[in-house]
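**Sequence, structure tokens**
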Amino acid sequence: MPSPSDVVQTSERVAMTSVNGAEFCGDAMAIPFDGPWTVVPADSSLDKEWGVGSEQVRLRIPVARFRSQYDDHWETIRFCNREEEAGHCGRYLTNWQARWITRRASWHCDSAEPVLFFRKKFTIDRPFQEARLCITAVNRFELYVNGHLVAIERGWDDPKLIDLTDHLVLGENTLAVKVMNDTPASGINLLAVERFDPSWLTSLLCHLRIWGEDMPWDIVSDASWVVTNREDEDWMAPDHPAERLAVRVDPKEHEGFWLATPGWVYAWERGRPPLLPWGHLPLFGEYVRFPVRLTYEVTLPPGTEAVFRPDIQGEWSACIEGVPVTDVLLQQGVVHLTPRSHPANFTIDVMAEDFACGVRAPIEITVAEREAELKPWDRWGLHWFSGRVIYRNAFWLQDADGVADSVERREGGKRRVELDLGTVKHHAEVWVNGKLVRVLLWPPYRVDISHAVRPGRNEVCIIVSNLIANRMRYGILDEGRALGWNRYWMEDNIDRDKHNLESGLLGPVLIRIV
């Protein structure tokens, strides 16, 4: 018999009495569950037919954290741009720290602006020997340093190298860039084209490197720059108040699609090279130099009992929680694990010889049913997952307790058995003893299960499904990442309502006779 600690308490319960495992609160009686919940993700078979699923499922993990020897910071990547395409490091490996930036004053971005004005203030607080700038823009630019015109160049596909050693000073400095686009995307419906010309998107990319005794020090184009689409008088001058006037624009906070912030705003990052449509570009005259060590970190969800050999091009090694598994994967094609109650790290190192190397496909695993606390799925490493998770438990109605009989009669009145799921994110199928009782799409997640219960042990299966937003959040295609309207629908619009990304049966789950 379960102990009193197995019974989930409710806020409405004031004074409790216990009789043979059942608890009473006034005129209601709570039935304890037989033990902890067991959980397992469901496969796609439940997309096409009703059922309670299996106790084991095969999953494909499409995302990972990634870094290379060029950058110690982790970033989240998707192995494949499209399901039918093989993955490769050429989609995300870069030697650039700088981002392509533009002006985004609303949900869209100013791709159609023929002229944008960028500024960046920074301070040099120690002597330096050399300063060089690698810069490109779509399609022409004028470069000003501390108010003086230094260069006029054109062509986005050939970053220019400019020596700024004699133009910078100890103390405060101001970089200002006027970007002019002769062929902006004005009048072009970008939703209607499969590929867009790199010359359509008004943007700036630059990296300033300063050498000194304890340097180099880097200043790169990113969201700390300010930008406007209006040419103020002396806009390039160091004493212009652009930085003081600039506002930060968060597209998630805009109340209307067409509400745009005028004047100076902080820049919006389209992304780092090899961001499409521009692809790989040389930084200070050099492309990525191979061989390059790549590191992928994949989160294995609790209950993982097998990891299959990953599809990788290039020499590689792997470990799970620091334990090497390369030889087992190479020789047997699968490594079997003792299912854990918590997520595990699966780390893959690849020595890439060219851009075709890297992990080419999602990581395939099998997950077994396991005992679990009721937590959001992202705590299990399933933040990317849109689908179903199956929860199972059981409870007892025993004639000897007078509980089963009370379903029909207690003190002369007809009673019912109610299942209360508490908090669900976001939909739930309720199965009792193999019978579908009801599908709950919104609160309150309560259902009368009287007609499905029986004396003795009763099996409960709750199949919870979440929203497509979790998959969408990691599903933006490479071809659309540079566009403001794409990022709005695939990222900003989802992040604005981040509570919708929370998934799972969160409870508390109660069974009451009322």
